Amino acid sequence: MDAYNQAEKPDIHGMFEKPQSAGQKLEAAGHVLAPIKYKLRTALMFADFIAIILYVYLVLIAAGINDMLNSRFSFVSRTMLTFYCVIALTAAAIIFVFIYKKDKTAQNRLEKENHLRTDEAVKVWLSGFDWGWPILFVPTMILMAAGGLIGLILNLIAKDASAVVGIQQFVGGVIIVFGILNAAVVIFKLKPKSLAVIAAAFLVSVLIMLLYGTSSLLRFLRFFRHFGVANDPLGYLLLAYVWFVFLRLIWLKSLYYYWVLLPQKFQIQAGLFESGNVVDLADLRCRIDTQDVILSWFDIGTITFYFPGLDKPAIVNLMTGIHKKTGFISRIITEKTV
Q: Is residue 52 part of a domain?
């Protein structure tokens, strides 16, 4: 993302650089809010993992029963060895959760938010974590999922198999070209003007080809087939699903690697156990980068916390909902000033 080039304007106490959207007005969080049902939310977010584990158990149990019925059962068969491994992994996970529940000292991020939501003394706060670069390729992930769904629909309704393959190749080409543009925006920081020039050049080219007849345009569109892969639609859905799994694992990690900004202090949690890392706001500086216009369209930006007088590395977070979070940081600064 582009460097933060706005002039630094510290507030009256010199604690923060003035955020880019400091004038944005947001209502402070209420003194007491309803707690979040985070356990239900977490279970729903990873419901597919639970379903997959149950499916594996059902398949292995069915295979074992089938071996018994056909007199092929053995405690050292491939099916039973696989079953032992699955049971061992499940038992290890249960033991880990049990030990953690018994000995944990750190609140996870959602527990912390519930504590703040029900604390009458806390008027406004902000918690956050770093999504990292995978969040920047969500548009490509969504397009992959859409391409997979289009392919499945075509397989159901189309009668000409060769035509379906051609369309799948075209869709694959579009996905690859879009992915390249997505990477260019992330890596080379393309501006809206640059994308507008590319789009205008593409439209002009299409109009010129239409002047020579629709056959010219069709030949150009067929050229996208060379970029694409006649992949099974489930392949695109699988790629999108794997990317979605990465994002959920980042979210899962964020339960114990997060920060909380309060009017009095800045708390840092890193790990399953209480880190006890608290910084006074007098030792904290905050920089908010929303200069990348394209990322700002998707409400994505960077918040950097650094500590000039302390021996601590800077905390750089790529975050969603950047405009709302900027407003809350302004409210926290105001609360501290008051």
A: yes
If asked whether residues 204 and 259 sit together in one domain, one would say no
- Kindly tell me if the per-residue pLDDT of 91 is higher than 80: yes
User: Using one digit for the tens of pLDDT, what is the confidence trace for 235-284?
Assistant: 889 999 999 999 999 999 999 999 999 988 999 998 888 777 899 988 88
* The pair of three-digit structure tokens given for residue 83, joined into one six-digit string: 């079953």
At 118, list the tokens. Answer: 């029900």
* 3 assigned to some structural domain: no
| 171 CA to centre of own chain | 24
Name the nearest CA neighbour of 124 among 251, 10, 261, 216: 261
What average pLDDT does this structure show over 107-111? 89
Given a cut of 80, whether residue 19 has pLDDT beyond it is no
Domain with 280 in it:
38-128+254-337
Q: Say which residues have a Cβ less than 8 Å from residue 48's Cβ, sequence separation at least 6.
A: none
